[in-house]
Amino acid sequence: MAEREVQLEQISAADFFYRNKALAGFDNPVRATYTIVRELVENALDACELARRPPRITVFMTRSEERVDGRGTIYRLTVSDNGIGLDPSDVPAAFGKVFVSSKYRLMQSRGTFGLGGTMALLYGQITTNMPFKVTTARDGGPVEEFEMKIDIKRNEPIVLKRRRLADACDESFTRVEMHFEGSYGKARRKIVEYLRQTAIVTPYADMLFVDPDGVPYLFVRSTDVIPPLPREAKFHPKGVDLEILMRLISTTKTRTLVTFLTTHFQRVGSKTAREVVRLAGLDPIKRPRNLTDEEIRALFRALRSYPRFLPPDASILSPLSPELLEEGIKKELRPEFVKAVQRPPSVFEAHPFIVETALAYGGELRPTGEIQLYRFANRIPLLYDVSSDVSYAVARRIDWGNYGLRSLEEEPVALFVHIVSTKIPFKTVGKEFIANKPEIAREIELGLRICARELKSFLHRKRRAEMARARYEAFARYYELISEVVEDLTGERPPVEKILSKVRPPAGVKKNGS
Amino acid sequence: MAHEEAVEVKKRIREIALKIKRDMEMGRFPKIRYPPNTSGNIEFSEEEGYVFSPRVYSEIRGSRLKSLKTLAGILYGMDKALDHLENGLTMTKRDFYYIHKIERLKGTLFPKDQRETDSRIVLMELVLGLPREAISITSDPRGWIYGDIELTDRSGRTIRADQVGEMGYSVPPRPENIKFGRIGVKAVVAVEKVGPAKNMIELGIPEEHGIAVAILKGQASRSMRRFLRMLSDKGVPVAILTDLSPWSIRIAATVVYNSISSAHIPGLAAPEARFIGITTGDVETGFFSDYRFALEPLTQMDLKAAQDNMRLPNLQHPFWQEENRWFLEKKKKAELEIFKAMSPSARELKGLFVEYLRQKLDENLGIAI
Ligand SMILES: Nc1ncnc2c1ncn2[C@@H]1O[C@H](COP(=O)(O)OP(=O)(O)OP(=O)(O)O)[C@@H](O)[C@H]1O
Ligand SMILES: [Mg+2]
Q1: What is the per-residue pLDDT for A86?
Q2: What is the three-class DSSP state of A230?
Q3: How do residues A325-341 score in pLDDT, each as one tens digit?
Q4: How would DSSP label each residue in B224-244?
Q5: Do B72 and A481 count as a contact with CB atoms less than 8 A apart?
Q6: How far apart are CA A403 and CA A407, in angstroms?
Q7: Where would a tag sit more exposed on chain B, N or C end, judged by fewer CB atoms within 10 A?
Q8: Considering every ligand atom, which ligand is closest to the CA of A109?
Q9: A-B interface: how many C-beta pairs under 8 angstroms?
Q10: Any alpha helices (H) in A52-175, and if so which ranges?
Q11: What is the reported pLDDT for A514?
């Protein structure tokens, strides 16, 4: 047998994602075009929400030069926002390194992995070999422009140019400019749909997208109300995995196991902490840093099996609110009826979550022959794999006939499901559909049923009013005819108004139930 | 005469229109009261047949949509009928249906099918208390009379019913106005089927024996029944000759007693008329007893009709019940064409007809021919 040299190659995180770009939604030029826009827009929205200002986001995409070898089209993309901006010293790491994120906390936000934006830039660099540009400023601070590349092998930023454009600015902002090879034509529908759905779930944002053909898509905000900023929270003891526990232990400054538990976890007082430690068979005053791997595993098991933790604190979550959801739906879809509800907080696998649902009917909505289901997670629209999503399964199992609808496919009805959580149980890294967790499914179903009951009574009133109107019109037709015939027979035409005033229909249906 | 009638009809229709006009002016829902031809309003007696004697009334109300359509419908129908009447035109039920198939009536009275307008004709009869013929809606005429009867009809001509062609006088849709002159017959024999009736005429039996032959051609039409009643009122004995079958028994009874569906039209029953045959007695022991082999079997439909007959108010007399029970028992029927089975040659046929009629007219009406 030939001696074989085993070569262990260490690859950087950036390198790893470069090799597995399908995982993050970059598997083909069409999908990549969509994903790039989406990641940059999400970062912009996150930044604006932190700034507590109604977001004002512009997205410009133009065709750059044709490739000489004819491989594909290069686009230039510029995304600007009025968010909190970055401290210039943070720019290289935030944009030039994967797994750097300001969002690695237990907090509800759009971004989670410290990956999205950087992957987009990385993809652009790989396909065009061109640098990207970031211009940013914080309130009152200097405006600086960075021209950068990413060292893929080492997962390190390379700053090519750094310029100070102004010493001070009035309002913070960020502008990211990049080139990438993509395919806009086929991605157009998805991108516009993504922005429209974002406008639904962010009715307080102004967004302008000008596409490579010069076609503008404008989404104007219809409200100034911004939902409260999600609060940061400690982990719930049942919500940590072994990985996070080890990281906490290796970085903690606490000196005993009991204080470690009370300091880093919510819902853990010293009494509870002592019980957990006893359950793990450990010494309460042991220094966390000195725990062996075996002891850490024992502690982890104890955290998992301890039965008396209070459920996680949901007050840190920031759902949209039924009012804003209805607002967004009304402004983008113009239905005749809309009803949104927010379910009380609930818990899955130690993560708090809140479900918001809505139903819209009629108006400019049209039946499409398919279930019109809009899904949102932490205010991000989910556009792919609808039929694998938990909401889809729930929508299919509800008996819509009981709510006065023949079927979802044949009626002008749209469903909306928004889930906010410190952890959204996505089935894939692509963040496209949500796993069928029974706790979540249950809340979605209850929410949709409440909306459906409201829709039912709306439809009932509407149909009654329609019948009354039809009845009135029939009366009018018959009395007109009778009046004519009576004139023929008697020479005098009796008026119809007096009689018809006795069958006036009830004045119109109210637009919405309450 | 005809003109006077039109004036009366117009008066009734105008009254209804004026009442509706007043109601509309006052902002009141108009309504029309009428006696429906339901069983509660129809009496039966052997002496008079079906008689319409209203006890219960219905209302066509302008406050309910379905009823409003009916109201508009009969008003429109009466208006058009009056127009025809005043211009000396008649119309059939089919015409009446087409009078509704116009652009102006889309969304109101434009009919789905003729049943819709037909049922409104009956309503108009009930509301006006007049037969539809009085408002110019007539059926295709059906029925002839052949014999020495002189009459003057609307055409103004005086006619002898044995001198107007080989079938005799065709009874008009509305015989009401006919005036009889000299009547030279001892009786009228009303025959269900055209074939045997024509044979009697062709064999010269009416002339030789002083009788008239009325040809019903199936169920007697309203005009034929009215005509027979008028003759009966003139003192002419009426005899009815039909097949022996569950259907024919109804035909005979309708001539005598009228029917439920036209019970609201007076003067259609001829209670003095007599059913002379074919009877079960003729088949069992009488005239045809040697020709039972020529009977026909009853079909399922025939049997069903026989079962239904047992419950008809005008067939409750023991005579009819006995006759009808025979069908249920024997599951057979006899047709008038049985005469042909008895006498394939023309010469004998005449003798058989005369012999049968002589026997039957004597037995039932005491008339010798
Ligand atoms: N427009 C912006 N304004 C301010 N900060 C930004 C902006 N874009 C990116 N950042 C910073 O850069 C970090 C990295 O962004 P990146 O998109 O790579 O990861 P993320 O948003 O944290 O997570 P995800 O992988 O889910 O997108 C962010 O956490 C944020 O701190
Ligand atoms: Mg991001």
Answers
A1: 93
A2: coil
A3: 999 999 999 999 999 99
A4: HHHHHHHHHHTT--EEEE--B
A5: yes
A6: 10
A7: N
A8: 1
A9: 74
A10: 91-96, 116-128
A11: 37
Rama region for B160: left / alpha / beta (φ>0; ψ in -120 to 50; rest): beta
CATH of A13-219, one of 3.30.565.10, 3.10.20.740, 3.40.190.10, 3.40.50.720: 3.30.565.10
Q: What pLDDT does residue A278 have?
A: 94
For A383-472, list the strands marked E by DSSP. 413-421
For residue A98, give the ligand nearest its CA. 1
Residue nearest to atom 12 of ligand 1 (CA): A94
Q: Smallest Cβ distance to B27: which of A481, A485, A498?
A: A498
User: Rounded to the nearest whole angstrom, what is the distance from the C-alpha of residue A88 to the centroid of ligand 1?
Assistant: 14
Q: Do A386 and A392 contact (CB within 8 A), yes or no?
A: yes
Q: Which of A79, A101, A112, A174 to mutate to test the pocket of ligand 1 (most atoms within 8 A of CB)?
A: A101
pLDDT of residue A105: 57
At A511 the three-state DSSP class reads: coil
The protein residue with its alpha carbon nearest to ligand 1, atom 9, reads A43
Sorted by sequence, the CB contacts under 8 Å of residue A474 that are 6+ apart come out as B65, B68, B107
Q: With 60 as the cut, is the pLDDT of residue A509 above it? A: no
How many other C-beta atoms lie within 10 A of the C-beta of residue B39? 12
Distance from CA of B61 to the nearest CA of A (A): 12
Q: Which parts of A226-321 fold into alpha helices (H)?
A: 242-251, 257-264, 270-279, 293-305
Query: Is 80 exceeded by the pLDDT of residue A182?
Result: yes
What are the chain B neighbours of A494 within 8 Å (beta carbons)?
Answer: 20-21, 24-25
pTM, whole model, 2 decimals? 0.69
